[in-house]
Amino acid sequence: MRNTTKTVTAVLAAGALALGVAACGSSDSSDDKNGALVVAASPVPHAEILNYVKDHLAKKAGLELEVKEFTDYNTPNLSTQDGSVGANYFQNQPFLDDFNKKKGTDIVPVVTVHLEPLGLYSHKVKKAGDLEKGATVAVPSDTVNEARALKLLDANGLIELKSGVGNEATPKDIVTNPKGLKFKELEAAQLPRSLDDVDAAVINGNYAIEADLKPAKDAILLESPKNNPYANFLAVKKGNEDDPRVKKLAKLLTSPQVKKFIEDQYQGSVLPSF
Asked: What is the topology of this protein in the membrane according to its UniProt annotation (predicted)?
């Protein structure tokens, strides 16, 4: 996710990290396999799903679970890498691959849980085809999600990307742009607030839900779940995959109860991937 993070977001992220370190520095060290498993998560839907597990399933399974919410896409992996938290739940494989490569971290997936379809939203048009020539479309500024956003527009005929372009696609890779769309790169968390200032915005599912948007209903374009590589998973620092607490959580996150919770709670805006 290219890190054009704004100052305000950086401050929030730093504050969140400081809080996480302070809280974990006492009895919740990720090295203490007998203590609580502290998991970093985006508020929606990740923390909501984890809190469902904590409130309804964890005690019976003998798991003490603590959920720490973060609003950015950098701090959870950095906190997992340095041991401030024992695991995280917020990301997909292309994002993790890019993050590990750029930051020198060695975070690995444990179990895949759900998909949040990326969507195009607008306060100004009801159909993507109604976007006027020269319209401005906001997209995530991080590498993987920007490419993902452009692929969504490509798949729906608004633009055409260069053949074979991968998860580092940028507007420079557009070879056909019949509407002459202009692109505004913003940090992913800022995108819902941009809808009054741009003609449309491609928004990650978790941030859309946080902003009271219903992807299955409100998006004018929505990713297909079929063969989608962007499902979200529980992740840990390499070497911690066999932590008994992590194994318990992985089993609970892919249980029939969690599947039903996701289906009932999000009504198609979040889809179980197991």
From this structure: Lipid-anchor
User: Can you tell me the distance from the alpha carbon of 110 to that of 246, in angstroms, rounded to the nearest whole number?
Assistant: 8
Q: Give the C-alpha separation, 76 to 41, whole Å.
A: 7
What pLDDT sits at residue 32? 66
pLDDT digits (tens, 9 = 90+) for 120-157: 999 999 999 999 999 999 999 999 999 999 999 999 99
pLDDT for 31 equals 58
Helices (H), the chain: 7-24, 48-56, 58-61, 75-82, 93-103, 143-155, 205-210, 215-218, 244-253, 256-266
d(CA 131, CA 93): 32
DSSP assignments along 13-60, one per residue: HHHHHHHHHHHHTSS--TT-TTS-EEEEE-IIIIIHHHHHHHHHTHHH
Q: Which of 234, 236, 232, 233 shows the shortest CA–CA distance to 86?
A: 236
What is the per-residue pLDDT across 65-102, written as a single tens digit (0 to 9) for each?
999 999 999 999 999 999 999 999 999 999 999 999 99
Among residues 150, 148, 17, the alpha carbon closest in space to that of 74 is found at 17
